[in-house]
Design goal:
Length: about 150
């Protein structure tokens, strides 16, 4: 049986969600692997997406402290889709049924701070420049010596 506890049910972008997960069995079986992940996912009509933000692993108990990215996304519950943030604890038990426990939590936007966003934009711009450099290296010449991208 997995027990999953969150220290808070709601966090803001850029903050941390903390808690602990534990696994116990009355049959004396120990999990081969016990891990906890922090993820967000989109569910609804159309395309689905899931992104794992961070993970932690351990024996029968795992304390976690996951940072929610400043850029989000924030939680959303609409008619066509939802953005759901979750902590998932999973125990892989050899020769038995694996166990999983999921707890959802809300991610809310934080107060506007121009300096934080400026730093975030500078990091994004540097990443974009690095990607542009990679694109140039990927150019290939065809038989007529024309560049194909």
């Amino acid at each position: 049986m997995i027990r999953l506890e969150l220290s808070q049910e709601s966090v803001r972008t850029g903050e941390r969600v903390t808690g602990h997960a534990s696994w116990s069995s009355s049959r004396g079986k120990a999990p081969h692997n016990f891990r906890v992940i922090c993820r967000w996912r989109i569910e609804g009509k159309g395309r689905r997406k899931e992104e794992v933000i961070d993970r932690a692993a351990g024996g029968n108990q795992v304390a976690f402290n996951f940072e929610i990215p400043l850029s989000g996304p924030i939680s959303y519950d609409g008619k066509l889709f939802r953005i759901v943030w979750e902590i998932v604890a999973h125990a892989y038990i050899p020769f038995a049924r694996d166990e999983e426990e999921v707890k959802s939590f809300l991610v809310r936007p934080r107060a506007w701070n121009a300096e934080e966003w400026k730093e975030l934009e500078e990091v994004d711009e540097n990443d974009d420049e690095d990607e542009d450099d990679d694109d140039v290296e990927d150019d290939v010449e065809d038989d007529d010596n024309e560049t194909i991208t």
